[in-house]
Design a protein that fits this description.
- By secondary structure, this protein is α+β, with helices and mostly antiparallel strands.
- It contains 6 helices and 8 strands.
- An 8-stranded antiparallel barrel has the order 1-2-3-4-5-6-7-8.
- Strand 6 and strand 7 form a beta hairpin.
């Protein structure tokens, strides 16, 4: 455990600035990217932000693909008609990110959480993924944490991971790494870190030391 703590001390010191830069990066001025909706008719401020931000545009295209797959799955939970209604409410909630102090970070969180919901509820959504733009939710069990963590990965360049355990969730952004996948981010409680290598991960949350986590087999 001392080794894990030492690793994360250096990791946090070098990486938090990079995460803040990734999350707060501005949209590309003047350029419109491909999205899952028609940018030429976009009126909502968040939609205009998505159209001009390559990361958000990629997330939107992938989220639309997941949503369409969920509609074809009669065994999805919730069922397709409820998925359709939930999607409309989700769009309204996503658009409220325009009033957030950090609209892009809020929008990223919205897409990451919705991807988790759609993938969790449908086997078709989880398996029909040739480009692996999203993955999970994978279940990680961590020493010192009473409940498992469900991790959903969104390969959006920069990539993000949505972590959910008990009644808590956090969306973390990818950081530069020489080995494995490293993510970091913060909320009102403080900073979080998640470092995955193969079937093992190290998780750090506010008020705790680094926790070693193992992923449960899928099947």
């Amino acid at each position: 455990m001392k080794m894990l703590t030492a690793i994360w001390t250096g990791f946090l010191a070098t990486g938090l600035c990079a995460v803040t830069s990734n999350v707060a990066s501005a949209a590309t001025p003047g350029r419109v990217f491909q999205t899952g909706f028609d940018c030429s008719t976009a009126t909502a401020k968040v939609e205009k932000l998505i159209c001009r931000d390559p990361q958000l545009a990629r997330m939107d295209v992938e989220l639309r693909r997941l949503y369409r797959l969920a509609l074809t799955d009669q065994r999805s939970v919730p069922p397709p008609d409820k998925v359709m209604n939930d999607q409309q409410f989700w769009i309204l909630a996503r658009n409220q990110c325009a009033t957030d102090v950090a609209p892009k970070a809020c929008t990223i969180r919205s897409y990451a959480e919705r991807a988790y919901q759609l993938r969790r509820g449908s086997a078709i959504v989880r398996t029909k993924d040739p480009d692996r733009l999203t993955e999970g939710p994978l279940t990680f069990r961590c020493t010192g944490l009473n409940t498992p963590i469900a991790a959903t990965f969104f390969n959006a360049g920069p990539d993000v991971v949505y972590l959910k355990w008990a009644n808590t969730s956090i969306t973390l952004s990818e950081m530069p790494s020489d080995s494995g996948l490293r993510y970091s981010g913060k909320d009102s409680l403080g900073y979080y870190s998640f470092w995955q290598t193969d079937a093992m991960a190290v998780f750090l949350k506010p008020g705790s030391s680094a926790m070693r986590c193992t992923v449960e087999p899928t099947g």
